[in-house]
């Protein structure tokens, strides 16, 4: 955002290199995640403490979240994807709360890529689990009806369902982008009004929103995976 201080703005002109700022903050996010992973696995213990304890609590929470949606076995299977996305989104969200940094997730380019990763992966899992034809058939459940009426309804319902699936890309990307961008603008205005004294309450609220948007992104990923791999006799 123009007009607000950033540490990288001391080196690069934000107006001339707007995308470079997000790329550098993404690199910073990756470095933080790798550092956390290194600290958590540096000396693994049966009774965890420190960073290992925090990371294990996070992974346990992700499994617990997915267990109610997709079952514990599948929640563990998709843990690497959901946990990685969750940690990536969370760190990106939190970076923007720190004065002098910007949230990469306040860029639609970043959130759109994340949404596309989820979209491609859950459709891939659906095809792998059910087969391409059965997976497409699972989009619409017409039940027992006259064959002609069933065919006519299929012509109407399948395009709607395809559009509905494509809209999930928009839903995932714009929900995260819109909320984080709004949070960044709120913090920007706050820093313009009180540049030397940052009220604690708004920062607590922004931190809560960062965690909430991460939770929403992860739970929707589990929901889409559950819908893709569900079979009639299963879920």
Short description:
Helices cover 74% and strands 0% of the residues. It has 235 residues and is mostly helical.
Structural account:
This protein has 235 residues and is mainly α. It has one domain. 74% of the residues lie in helices and 0% in strands. The chain has helices spanning 18-41, 50-70, 72-77, 79-95, 108-130, 132-137, 147-193, 200-229.
What keyword list fits this structure?
globular, 8 helices, 235 residues, single chain, mainly alpha
Q: Helix and strand layout, with pairings?
A:
Elements: H1 18-41, H2 50-70, H3 72-77, H4 79-95, H5 108-130, H6 132-137, H7 147-193, H8 200-229
Helix pairs in contact: 1-2, 1-4, 2-8, 4-8, 5-7, 5-8, 7-8
What is the number of helical segments per DSSP (H or I, 4+ residues)? 8
Kindly state the percentage of residues in helix.
Answer: over 70%
Number of strand elements: 0
Total domains, how many?
Answer: 1
Main pleated-sheet profile:
none
The H-and-E topology, N to C, reads as HHHHHHHH
Tell me the β content.
under 5%
Radius of gyration, taken over Cα atoms and rounded to an integer in Å: 21 Å
Poorly predicted runs are: none
Task: Tell me, rounded to a whole number, the average pLDDT.
Answer: 82
How far apart are the termini? 45 Å
Shape: globular
Supply the helix-strand structural class.
mainly alpha
């Amino acid at each position: 955002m123009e007009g607000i201080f950033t540490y990288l703005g001391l080196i690069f002109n934000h107006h001339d290199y707007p995308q470079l700022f997000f790329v550098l903050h993404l690199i910073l996010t990756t470095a933080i995640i790798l550092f956390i992973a290194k600290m958590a696995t540096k000396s693994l213990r049966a009774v965890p403490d420190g960073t290992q304890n925090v990371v294990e609590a996070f992974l346990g929470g992700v499994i617990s979240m997915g267990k109610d949606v997709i079952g514990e076995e599948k929640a563990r299977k998709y843990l690497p994807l959901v946990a990685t996305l969750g940690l990536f989104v969370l760190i990106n969200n939190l970076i923007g709360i720190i004065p002098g940094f910007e949230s990469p997730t306040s860029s639609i380019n970043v959130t759109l890529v994340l949404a596309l990763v989820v979209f491609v992966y859950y459709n891939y899992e659906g095809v792998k689990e059910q087969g391409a034809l059965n997976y497409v058939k699972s989009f619409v459940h017409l039940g027992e009806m006259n064959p002609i009426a069933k065919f006519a309804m299929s012509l109407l319902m399948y395009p709607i369902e395809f559009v509905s699936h494509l809209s999930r890309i928009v839903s995932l990307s714009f929900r995260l982008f819109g909320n984080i961008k709004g949070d960044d603008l709120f913090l920007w205005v706050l820093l313009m009004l009180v540049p030397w004294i940052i009220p604690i309450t708004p920062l607590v609220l922004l931190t809560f929103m960062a965690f909430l948007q991460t939770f929403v992104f992860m739970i929707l990923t589990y929901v889409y995976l559950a819908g893709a791999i569900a079979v009639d006799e299963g879920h």
